[in-house]
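Try this one yourself first.
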């Protein structure tokens, strides 16, 4: 076990900061690769960028669906998390760096088609390892928050994550536009490299920054055994999957967990789809330019930091269920406001609500899951939590794409309808969450059938 406690039962400030800083680090990857610059790079290589990016993302999500429960079971059976976090992060960093080298040298060696094929393969593998690392990162929360409030510590991580998003948008934007002349310098040293700036120029920076800001977590976050037993038990693939199947079969015995995971699937579906379509919604419905869209995203992200801190404290004081219910209502109001927005000003008015809700969602969700889970199953249920999130990552974009295709003749109205449909999904999440018991970390919810116990 790493040195991470200043006193028995209380984690050190260094451990908490190191854990939260990993959220800063992985958000740089999320913004730099998943959200902005990989899709833009694909658009430089192919006219089918929408199909290629969504197909690659869906395939990666499918792989995570398969792997996440297994990884969670491994974490619980071995009671070790940091070693897996380190290995998966290093692999992701290496794959991201390889994408950067491919962007620099690929076109001249294997041509645009070959570059695209190899780039997509590297992207899928990098996304898989990134998402898998999050299973072990999330499972470290109970140990690192000991004596400090799980909601509060979770909020620190989410808040630093959104600071990382702002840092990534500003820093990587300067690289992609050529204001930081990476491509020109490399081209002058290696004549075979084209001098024109490319979105892929950001990939090496993403890899380096992800690694640098992850290092404190590797060394200073305590790897606490939540069962009080020493880790290191032998784990087989078959044994891990059997543990997952056993948990799924007996999930009704964990009061409220099944209902919470279904609610998670719905609210992450609506939230992620809403955020992913903010830029496109602004451009298609209101004709916003790239600069306006970037300003809107940065403006909203500032409020995401506020939501992370504020709802972290609220979760500890009022309980994660009440805090999460408030967050879902904010999401519902935000979606309705965006759907009915009469002008760009209304998007900027809704932006703070979207930001607060986005930051608070992940801050409160993690303590809610831990409160419903017995200590020996935390990693496994975080794997299922990731599983639910990845199902929503497939279903949300698919539903939106289907609506936009069917309502293509309606132009901007089609986008209003597709975003408005997310309100229905969010209402479903609110109804399901109302059936989940008001559990707190360290207090197991009552047996099934208790008042407000909800269905498992």
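Now uncover the answer:
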């Amino acid at each position: 076990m790493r040195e991470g406690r200043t006193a028995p039962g209380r984690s050190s400030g260094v451990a908490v900061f190191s854990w939260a800083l990993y959220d800063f680090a992985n958000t740089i990857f999320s913004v730099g690769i998943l959200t902005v610059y990989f899709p833009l790079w694909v658009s430089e290589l192919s006219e089918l960028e929408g199909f290629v990016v969504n197909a690659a993302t869906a395939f990666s999500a499918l792989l995570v669906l398969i792997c996440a429960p297994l990884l969670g079971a491994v974490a619980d059976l071995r009671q070790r998390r940091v070693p897996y976090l380190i290995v998966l992060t290093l692999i992701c960093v290496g794959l991201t760096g390889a994408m950067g080298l491919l962007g620099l040298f690929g076109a001249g060696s294997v041509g645009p088609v070959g570059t695209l094929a190899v780039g997509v393969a590297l992207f899928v593998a990098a996304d898989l390892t990134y998402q898998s690392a999050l299973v072990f990162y999330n499972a470290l929360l109970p140990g690192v928050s000991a004596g400090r409030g799980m909601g509060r510590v979770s909020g620190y991580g989410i808040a630093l994550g959104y600071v990382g998003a702002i840092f990534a948008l500003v820093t990587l934007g300067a690289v992609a536009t050529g204001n930081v002349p990476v491509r020109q310098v490399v081209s002058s040293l290696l004549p075979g490299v084209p001098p024109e700036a490319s979105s892929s120029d950001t990939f090496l920076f993403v890899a380096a920054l992800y690694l640098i800001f992850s290092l404190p977590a590797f060394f200073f976050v305590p790897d606490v055994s939540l069962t009080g037993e020493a880790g290191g038990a032998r784990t087989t693939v078959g044994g891990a999957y059997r543990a997952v199947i056993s948990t799924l079969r007996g999930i009704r015995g964990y009061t409220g967990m099944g209902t919470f995971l279904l609610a998670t699937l719905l609210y992450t579906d609506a939230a992620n789809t809403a955020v992913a379509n903010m830029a496109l919604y602004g451009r298609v419905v209101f004709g916003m330019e790239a600069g306006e869209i970037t300003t809107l995203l940065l403006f909203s992200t500032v409020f995401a930091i506020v939501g992370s801190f504020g709802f972290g404290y609220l979760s500890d004081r009022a309980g994660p269920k009440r805090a999460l219910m408030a967050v879902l209502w904010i999401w519902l109001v935000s979606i309705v406001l965006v759907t009915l927005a009469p002008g760009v000003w209304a998007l900027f008015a809704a932006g703070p609500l979207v930001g607060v809700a986005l930051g608070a969602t992940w801050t409160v969700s993690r303590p809610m899951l831990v409160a419903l889970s017995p200590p020996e199953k935390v990693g496994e249920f975080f794997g299922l939590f990731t599983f639910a999130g990845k199902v929503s990552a497939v279903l949300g974009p698919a539903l939106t794409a289907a609506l936009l295709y069917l309502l293509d003749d309606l132009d901007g109205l089609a986008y209003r309808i597709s975003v408005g449909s997310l309100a229905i999904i969010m209402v479903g999440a609110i109804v399901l969450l109302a059936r989940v018991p008001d559990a707190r970390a360290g207090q197991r919810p009552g047996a099934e059938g208790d008042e407000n116990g909800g269905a498992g």
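Discussion: The chain has two domains: 1-224+234-242, 250-456. The first strand starts at residue 5 and ends at 7.
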